[in-house]
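Recall the central idea of this unit: under ordinary conditions, the amino acid sequence of a chain determines the structure it adopts. In this exercise we apply that idea directly, starting from the sequence alone.
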Amino acid sequence: MSLLDLPDELLVQIASYLALYELVLLQQVCARWREVIRSNAALQYNIELRVAGMIDNPASRLVPGERLRILQRKEKAWRVLDMSDKRSLTLSHRPSGIYDLTGGTLLLGERRNGEGYAGTDAVHTIQLNAVSSNSGSQANDSSWTNIDLGKQVIDVGLAIQEHDLLAIVTYS
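Accordingly, the structure predicted from this sequence is:
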């Protein structure tokens, strides 16, 4: 029995331990290896992820085939600078200079006082994936979450993806 007589599932398992350049070389060995690698979404995702210079999100619950489709769509959009997938966010507050974006959460500060005042009185957050999944192209005010601590905000920090953490530094 030769290695190539093994079922595709075992060949995929073996190939999954290889580095990117080894996978590329393995595809050149013979038509069987090329077909095994090209027909497996997880292996293709790993190859295209490395080629794009990106890293995988281990917290993602998407199957490799869906991850591959999303990656391919994003890479194509970058190649042709396709900006057709736009969403508008309606702001019912006056934004301050505080903002952050991480883990799909956008945070914008709110300035309630008049002109000449550069402080932040509260912060608002929105999940951008909720905006992109809406059928319309615009998020309404109910999509935003308001966080008002009743104090002046100095700065904020987000670590949503890693720790589901939002830190707000205030002063009185």
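The longest helix spans residues 64-80.
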